[in-house]
Amino acid sequence: MVMTLDQQFALPYDGRIPGGRKDWHNTIITRVEEIALERNATMTQVAIAWSLGKEHVRALVINAPATDQLLNALGGMDLVLTAAEIQYLEEPYSSQILRH
């Protein structure tokens, strides 16, 4: 099942981020959606493309309950984001301390 943007915004606080989801989180989700629409890609593909563009990323865990969802997500491996798109995605981010 692909989650809509509104469904992602409605995700409950899970306790890992002190104080809950930050405003920048929703801004980033909106920007991922914008880039996906501009690139005729899915939000998952944009997220994968961003992740694979990071030097320190060695592996991704993709939760895809069906083969077609996994194949769709893997389309992100062929997507290369521009430097401007990466900057646009990362600009609102503020690092957080996670609880274990």
UniProtKB/TrEMBL annotation:
InterPro entries for this protein: NAD(P)_OxRdtase_dom_sf (IPR036812), NADP_OxRdtase_dom (IPR023210)
UniProt domain NADP-dependent oxidoreductase: residue ranges: 24-91
Entry superkingdom: Eukaryota
Gene3D superfamilies recorded: NADP-dependent oxidoreductase domain
Pfam families, per database record: Aldo_ket_red (PF00248)
Name of the protein: NADP-dependent oxidoreductase domain-containing protein
Native species: Armillaria gallica (Bulbous honey fungus)
Taxonomic lineage from the root: Eukaryota, Fungi, Dikarya, Basidiomycota, Agaricomycotina
